[in-house]
Structure formats: structure tokens, C-alpha cells
């Protein structure tokens, strides 16, 4: 297992985190948020390898920032289950297995399927049309084979859909479960463009069913969409 301790050990080109302009937010918090986003992208894109250990100074050198926001971002990722803390060394990228994905999918189905059914019966069709641009953004990213872009579009769509329930805790929990399910598993091949497109098309199909008030169809699509069988990696 290789430890990534310095910039020289890193196999990837250094990418600076852009400066955030404008709002009067403390700079450290601003940089931490940008580093967190960059690390999430690296995880989804496979730039950070499952099982490998990365040091905060080494990652800080790669992104052109100090080690403090990197440590803070990695601690957040540890809370999300994406990495594990290795004392005196850094952070090991978690090795997600097929069983992990199956368990995540089961919990997601328990939460998201009844939530979608409740929304379908409670809201007028036009409320769901507002999610159409998010679904289209996912299709566009999937068509490019952009795994990172699709992961963000996927999260944005589900976050917006669950937000319609008005339940902040539900939205937070389902969002966290989706993040965890997006980390590439170590025991399965990476997703192909065709897989991404199939996944993205289900967002569109779900909206069509919700707008048409086809409750049974919306329930079936949601169940299949969150099922691990529909998420080949």
C-alpha cells in the first residue's frame, strides 16, 4: 500500500484551488470548501485510489494551499465514510465494496421511494417541471462520459427532489447516502458512458411520470434507480 507523503510522490499534476471572490466569508472556510469540493471530485474521478494513504501536506502541495484546510476537508470526508484516519500518516481512501453499495441502496430505497410517492400525491405537476434543467444537466454530463460532472448533477437532482418534502433531515440523510454510493468500489470496474446515460435517463423518466401523475410508475422508477443492480461500476 503506497503512502502519498509529498508532491513528488503524487502521480497527478498539481491543481490549484481557485481563489473565491466576493462574499465576506473567512478565507480559511472558503478555501476549505473549495478543497473539499476538489477532493470529492478526485474521489469520484478515481484520482485518489482506494486503499492508498495520502498525507495532508502532500495534498496541500498538490492543490497549492496550506495543510490546515486539507486536514479539515479530509476530516469531513472521514465523517462521510470516504476516507479513514491513519494516525501519524494521513488518510486512507476507503475501499467501497459491492456489499457496501447493496446496503446503501437498500437504505436509500427505504427513504426515497416512500418520499417520492408522497410527493407525487401531494404536489401539482408543475412543481416537478422545475427540476427538468437539473435532469438535463445530468444527461449532458453523462453523454460526455464526465463521471465527476454527472455525480454532481446526480446529487443536485436528488437534493432538489428531496427538498420538495420540506424535511431538511431527510434531505441531509439521503444526500449523504448518495455521496457514499458515488465513491468508486474497489471490486468492480468503472462505470461506462452507457451506464451513466442509463442512470441519467431515469431522472427524466421519473419527472415524466411525476408530471403525468402516474404514481405507480414513479414508484417503480425510483426503486429501480436507487437499486444497486441499476448502478454498475
Features:
5% strand; Four Helix Bundle (Hemerythrin (Met), subunit A); 10 helices; mainly alpha; Arc Repressor Mutant, subunit A; four-stranded mixed sheet; disordered C terminus; 2 domains; elongated; disordered N terminus; 233 residues
Q: Kindly provide the name of the CATH class of the largest domain.
A: Mainly Alpha
The quaternary state of the protein chains shown equals single chain
Strand portion: 5-15%
The CATH superfamily of the largest domain bears the name GntR ligand-binding domain-like
Report helical residue fraction.
Answer: 55-70%
How is the main sheet built? 4 strands, mixed
What is the count of structural domains? 2
Number of helices: 10
Radius of gyration: 19 Å
From the 3D coordinates, which CATH architecture of the largest domain would you assign?
Up-down Bundle
**Total E-strand runs:** 4
Tell me the span between the first and last alpha carbons. Answer: 23 Å
Low-confidence stretches: 1-26, 229-233
**Order of secondary-structure elements:** EHEHHEEHHHHHHH
CATH names the topology of the largest domain as Four Helix Bundle (Hemerythrin (Met), subunit A)
> What class would the helix/strand composition place it in?
mainly alpha
Strand order of the largest sheet: 1-2-4-3
Amino acid at each position: 500500500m503506497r503512502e502519498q507523503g509529498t508532491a513528488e510522490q503524487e502521480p497527478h499534476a498539481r491543481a490549484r484551488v481557485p481563489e473565491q471572490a466576493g462574499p465576506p466569508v473567512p478565507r480559511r472556510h472558503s478555501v476549505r470548501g473549495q478543497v473539499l469540493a476538489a477532493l470529492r471530485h478526485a474521489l469520484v474521478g478515481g484520482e485518489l485510489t482506494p486503499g492508498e494513504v495520502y498525507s495532508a501536506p502532500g495534498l496541500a502541495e498538490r492543490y497549492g494551499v496550506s495543510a490546515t484546510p486539507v486536514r479539515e476537508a479530509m476530516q469531513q470526508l472521514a465523517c462521510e465514510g470516504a476516507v479513514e484516519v491513519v494516525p501519524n500518516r494521513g488518510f486512507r481512501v476507503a475501499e467501497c465494496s459491492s456489499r457496501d453499495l447493496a446496503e446503501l441502496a437498500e437504505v436509500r430505497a427505504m427513504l426515497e421511494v416512500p418520499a417520492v410517492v408522497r410527493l407525487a400525491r401531494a404536489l401539482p405537476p408543475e412543481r416537478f417541471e422545475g427540476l427538468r434543467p437539473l435532469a438535463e444537466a445530468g444527461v449532458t454530463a453523462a453523454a460526455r462520459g464526465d463521471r465527476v460532472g454527472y455525480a454532481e448533477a446526480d446529487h443536485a437532482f436528488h437534493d432538489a427532489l428531496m427538498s420538495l418534502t420540506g424535511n431538511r433531515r431527510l434531505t441531509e440523510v439521503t444526500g449523504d447516502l448518495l455521496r457514499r454510493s458515488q465513491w468508486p468500489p474497489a471490486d468492480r470496474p468503472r462505470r461506462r458512458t452507457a451506464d451513466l446515460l442509463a442512470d441519467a435517463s431515469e431522472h427524466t423518466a421519473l419527472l415524466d411520470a411525476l408530471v403525468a401523475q402516474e404514481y405507480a410508475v414513479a414508484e417503480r422508477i425510483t426503486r429501480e434507480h436507487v437499486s444497486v443492480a441499476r448502478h454498475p461500476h
